[in-house]
Design brief:
199 residues; single chain; 9 helices
Length: 199
C-alpha cells in the first residue's frame, strides 16, 4: 500500500481537478475507479504518472454518460437519506425510525458500492449496473461488509480533517476508491476466471 501512495495522491489530484465542474464528477469518479482497479491489480500501465493520466482520461471519455447517471443516482439516494434523517431528527427519533433509516442506508450502500467499479470495468446498461451491484454484494457478503467497514473508517478520518483545512481531501478519496477497488478486483477475477471444477 505504501508504495502506491504517490500514485493514489496523483490519481486524487486528477479526480479533484476533473470533478470541479460538478457535472463531470460522475465521469471523474468512474475514471478514478478505472485507474484504482488497475493499481489494485498491479497493472504495468498505471505504474507511472503518465500511464495513470492516459488511463484516467481514456476512461473519463468512455464512461462519461454512465458516470453522470450513476452520480445523479448517488446524489439523490444519499441526499434523500439525509433529508429523512433531518425529518426524523426534527420530530424526535424512536426505534422504528432508526430501524427504517438503517434499512434505507443499507439499501443505498448495496446499490452504490460496486456500481462505479462495474462501470469502470464493463459495458452495461444503467439498470444492469445496479442489479449487478446488488448481486455482487449479496454473493460476497463477508468481503462487502469488511469493505464497508474500512470505507466508513476512512470517511470518518476524512471528516475529521476539517480541523486541518480538509487536508484529507488531497489523498483520502483515492484511498477509498482503492479500498473498494481491491475488493471489486478480487470479485471480478473470481467471476472472470472461475476455479476449475473438480473431476
Amino acid at each position: 500500500m505504501l508504495n502506491k501512495i504517490p500514485r493514489l495522491f496523483f490519481l486524487n489530484l486528477l479526480w479533484l481537478l476533473m470533478s470541479l465542474p460538478v457535472i463531470t464528477a460522475g465521469g471523474s469518479t468512474c475514471a478514478a475507479f478505472a485507474v484504482a482497479l488497475r493499481i489494485a491489480d498491479d497493472d504495468e500501465e498505471v505504474k507511472s504518472f503518465r500511464g495513470i493520466s492516459r488511463r484516467f482520461f481514456k476512461a473519463f471519455k468512455q464512461d462519461f454518460l454512465q458516470g453522470i447517471l450513476i452520480f445523479i443516482f448517488s446524489l439523490v439516494s444519499f441526499g434523500l437519506g439525509g433529508y429523512f434523517v433531518y425529518l426524523a431528527w426534527d420530530s424526535s427519533f424512536n426505534l422504528l425510525k432508526i430501524g427504517l433509516l438503517v434499512i434505507y442506508f443499507f439499501i443505498v450502500l448495496v446499490l452504490n458500492l460496486y456500481s462505479y467499479p462495474l462501470i469502470a470495468r464493463y459495458s452495461n446498461s444503467f439498470i444492469n449496473v445496479l442489479r449487478n451491484s446488488i448481486g455482487l454484494f449479496l454473493q460476497y457478503l463477508n468481503m462487502s461488509f469488511k469493505t464497508i467497514g474500512l470505507v466508513i473508517l476512512e470517511l470518518a478520518v476524512l471528516a475529521l480533517t476539517y480541523k486541518i483545512y480538509f487536508a484529507g481531501l488531497l489523498i483520502l478519496p483515492a484511498v477509498i476508491f482503492y479500498t473498494i477497488s481491491r475488493t471489486a478486483k478480487d470479485i471480478f477475477v473470481k467471476l472472470e476466471k472461475p476455479a476449475p471444477a473438480e473431476e
